[in-house]
Amino acid sequence: MINIRVNALQQLRSNRSTEVETPKKHISEYYGAYVFHEQAMKAYLSKEAFKSVMHSINSGSKIDRSVAEQVASAMKAWAMNNGATHFTHWFQPLTGSTAEKHDSFFQQTTTGHGIELFEGDSLVQQEPDASSFPSGGLRNTFEARGYTAWDPSSPAFIMETPAGKTLCIPTIYVSYTGEALDYKAPLLKSMQALEKASVDVCHYFDKNVTKVFATLGWEQEYFVVDEALYEARPDLLMCGRTLFGAAPAKGQQLEDHYFGSIPERVYQFMVDFESECFLLGIPLKTRHNEVAPSQFECAPFFEEVNIAIDHNQLLMDVLDRVARRNHLRVLLHEKPFAGINGSGKHNNWSMATDTGKNLLSPGKTPKTNLQFLTFFVNTIKAVNEHPDLIRASIASASNDFRLGANEAPPAIISVFIGKYLTDVLNEVESRVKSGKFSEQDEQTLRLDIHNKIPDLLMDNTDRNRTSPFAFTGNKFEVRAVGSSANCSSTMTVLNTIMADQLVKFKTEVDALIKKGENREVAILHVLKGYITSSKRILFEGNNYSVEWEKEAKKRGLNNIKTTPTALDAYSSKDTIALFERNKVFTKVEVHARHEIELEKYIKKVQIESRVLGEMVLTHIIPAAVEYQSRLLTNINGLKEAGVTKKLYEAQLSMVTEISEHIMVIRNKSEAMVEARKQANNVEDIRAKAIAYCDKVKPYLEEIRYHVDKLEIKIDDKLWPVPKYRELLFLR
Ligand code: ADP
Ligand code: MG
């Protein structure tokens, strides 16, 4: 009998000897070589065209038709000089990955002759036949028309594969009637809303600010496993996670992997993917081992949020491709192994001005500190008003395994700010008297805030690693985002709630100013009100504790543990009004998105359930039966040899135990199929998702329990799929 697992283990040995060429050059010599960035544009465009494009990019205004024509021709020249033969509109449909449809520059002119051509029209807009992407009912498949439209604010780049090079043009993806079908379109709208609202508020402090943009620095966690072992596990192949696997004797309890030296084969892989990222202008900065065995992390310098997200999407793509070429596989799933830490994607978020100021960085003078306090307190207030929407934005079938487990932020959204800022807020609250403006307010402004805040930057040890939303000195870190997620969902929500909050803030402050109040004192008073009304969202303790769950409940903070109900926040009246007010989503678009997320959830659970059902019948039970037969042969042999029963009782009880597990596995698999059938008959999509969550998903765990028991009872040579210790420790 061929054992897939034994074969895979043999294959692993030869995979290990893959040679990877390490780049000989300094990073600075090739960084961004495949990006049509500002310098490249300058070199390839006429002076006027360059000026015009840069103006459009910086101001977000429309690019002139004739200029688009020139840009297209410059892009083509640049791309062809770099070896590209094709171009594609590169977009981010709601499936979660990126999409492309390649077209050749080549066009036949007469039979047997042709030229390389790329016109403004092809740059600006395309109509990919993309009718199979999720649209939540927005796009009738018969019409099949979805358009991609150029996003000039994110530079075009060249994607290289062994088969050739392709010019990729970042685009948004919208329906024929203009509704967003992707992640980028709403993100860009949320950025506009945030920009407008924060520039207005910045003008209280600095009239020179003309542009504010959100910044994002993500930290990507991932697992690496050998390709042969990966391919021997249908669950990894189909679901990106193991659906069973007995806990290895040694897991992560020694924590010896964390920040340890990077295993050589993975190190080679990192060098390889990093050099691809550098060509693409992804500013990767750090790499290290994570807590779990075979878990790693990389993080770049932060960038403007739209670019940062494009880069993260690109990185996930590059990770996957480069891993394959190294005979490895990257697992981006939030929880590939039960009992082992999962993976997240911390989103470090802040706002920066075109005058070079980080709005969440405490300043050196009372005035700049009031600006800091303004943006800081407004963020807290924004989160306090919309915690459930943030929760919805991080919800997915795979992230459910991580949130609320004892390793990741809980499903309760709260904000950590540290001791210093807690003191500062308390002080503002106690010194500024409601409704009354006093001389003391001025003093508070000039003295205390100023004296306290600078300490904060000095002390970065004040960290709470359990908080889902933590202030870390000059930015907020959203820790609950899943490792496989497109950051846009969360960033769009964050930008929008912040924009909305800042608009309200300005209205309140202006009203006080109109009554004749001094501007700074007015700001202080409004902030004081926010501090008081946002208290419930602040939590400094251990977010993993049971006490916090109880306390949060008292404070009226929700603890929504599963995706189908977490997504409800998308369809609440408040949410729709919020998105419409800020022109980020229309009502129809929010509903469509909600529906798509529910659908994705259903499909994910459905696939897992099918894969497990098949694996137990075709892999696990046959192995168990085989071992059982051997035991029975042995027992019969012993019986024939006249050995007393007592001496083969152990074998007998093993046979019985195996039979019991087989029986339960089979019964539960059948019951799971039945549960699936019933869930499939549910008409309403939300109810169907809940049925999958409550009625189908529990079987995955129940069946797994017995499979894991069998794994530790059956002859190791017969076990058909790679075990946890092999997946996690062999590279
Ligand atoms: P750590 O959190 O590991 O101590 P850092 O504080 O240096 O490390 O930064 C973590 C991440 O936060 C990095 O990706 C970094 O680029 C990002 N970051 C730093 N400053 C900002 C900012 N102003 N806006 C957004 N992200 C930022
Ligand atoms: Mg961090």
Description:
With 731 residues, the chain is of the alpha+beta class. The protein has three domains: 31-182, Ubiquitin-like (UB roll) (Roll); 192-599, Creatine Kinase, Chain A, domain 2, CATH 3.30.590; 600-729, Four Helix Bundle (Hemerythrin (Met), subunit A). The protein is 50% helix and 12% strand. The protein has 24 helices and 17 strands. Strands 9, 10, 11, 12, 13, 14, 15, 16 and 17 form a nine-stranded mixed beta sheet that branches. Strand 7 and strand 8 form a beta hairpin. The radius of gyration is 29 Å and the shape is globular. The model has no long low-confidence stretch (mean pLDDT 89). Residues 215-217, 219, 299-302, 348-350, 358, 472, 474-475 line the site of adenosine-5'-diphosphate.
Distinct ligands, ions and cofactors found in the model? adenosine-5'-diphosphate, magnesium ion
Indicate the multimeric state.
single chain
CATH class wording of the largest domain: Alpha Beta
**CATH fold name of the largest domain:** Creatine Kinase, Chain A, domain 2
**CATH homology superfamily name of the largest domain:** Glutamine synthetase/guanido kinase, catalytic domain
For the structure shown, list the relevant keywords:
six-stranded mixed β-sheet, alpha+beta, globular, binds adenosine-5'-diphosphate, 24 helices, nine-stranded mixed β-sheet, Four Helix Bundle (Hemerythrin (Met), subunit A), Ubiquitin-like (UB roll), Creatine Kinase, Chain A, domain 2, 731 residues, binds magnesium ion
